[in-house]
Amino acid sequence: MTFLTIGHRGVMGVEPENTLRSFVRAEHEGMDVIELDLHLSKDGALVVMHDADVDRTTDGKGPISDFTLAELRELDAGEGERIPVFEEVVDAVAAPLQAEIKDTAAARALAEVLTRRDLLGRVDILSFHDEALAEIRTLLPTARTALVASRYGLDVIDRAHAIGAGMLVLNIRRLTLELVEKAHADDLKVIAWTVNTPDQLKLVRGLRLDGATTDFPEIRRAARFTA
């Protein structure tokens, strides 16, 4: 079984999250896949940031949706990095990507870029929002999608099937063997987040998960030796 290590917002444990610097570092460290988050700016740009506002990760304040892309570019996203747009990440690294839709309105913009740049083979589309993944399925019937969940039960499997998702990306703190076995029996892959310690890595390997999302490069190295 192939086990994937996924760089969370690049490698946010050692670099400013969701910046080109973080994504390039993740690729350099050998991450199998790089995960990022997407919102729309005031003028419709597909910007890479986790939170709905800029307060936590930049020197600005306020909702992303109140800023134009040009205004967002003026902010410091950590160590002098600027907030990137999705296509800049596509061009900066060659690794497969997981693009998480944080703002449902970003689904259509992402579908347009994936189509125009012929990226469906390289990008998995993730979201906590069932409606965003359902819209992606309508716009891009062959897209690979994954349902993300933090608080969930066995019902998350039915939710994934209802919207055509082929993968679950789940909070490690609620994972059970019963859920993993049922998901695998229903042809769903299961990824855990966030796996940042050796004990957490041993747990996901013991549960025979398909991968782990991590903040730290050393988890990638440890994964090779953890059965």
From TrEMBL:
PROSITE patterns (UniProt xref): GP_PDE
Coiled coil: none
Protein name per its UniProtKB record: Glycerophosphodiester phosphodiesterase
Organism annotation: Streptomyces rugosispiralis
All copies of domain GP-PDE, residue ranges: 3-224
